[in-house]
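Risk mitigation, structural track. In case the binding assays with glycinamide ribonucleotide fail to produce interpretable data, a predicted complex structure has been prepared as a fallback.
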Amino acid sequence: RKRIAILISGRGSNMSAIIAACMDPSFPGEVKAVISNRPNAKGLETAKRYEIEAIAVDQKAYADRQAHEQAVLAELDRVKPDIICLAGYMRLLSADFVRRFEGRMINIHPSLLPLFPGLDTHARALAAGMRIHGCTVHYVTERMDEGPIIAQAAIPIEPGDTADSLADRLLRAEHRLYPHALRLVLTAQVRMVNGTAAVLRNPESAERAD
Ligand code: GAR
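Fallback model:
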């Protein structure tokens, strides 16, 4: 099974969804480490309960972004993941860091990209009068929230929805989407080719090959 590292900053509910998917022995990967830039992230406690290595690399303990990233890199060099999943990791990564893991680092974003990159996506979707909202799993590239799209899920926006109600409902879709997208990547049904997410093989032939 492929080695997965997850980077978080807080609650870690998407992390939990990935861990839960990996409990099925037929899932093509297993979570080897969870790293948080915030030592008090709730997700670190959750990871420990699952007996997964939970590492805090406190950004406040380092002089600048570069020094902090070096410390994260040192942990990743030790863990040797095949793939890195960003799951609510709320710190921008430098171009150097991103290039190093090109094609091997994916992120979940709470909007139907390329709509609403950045923060406050639920409020912005409501303000724009959208009738649907959604989430996107994409490869991480140097430009934030612009990497090639691997998979998306959409939900309807209902009358009376608030940013909070929308966020809650979308989160449930995120928890289904992220393990699905991760499986596509781990089984090489999707790969990043020439800066776009290419569908390489149909699921049946991919299943047989793996
Ligand atoms: C999720 O909704 C995720 O899509 C979002 O943060 C939340 C993390 O929740 N990510 C971003 O906004 C990335 N820019 P979680 O810690 O419970 O998975």
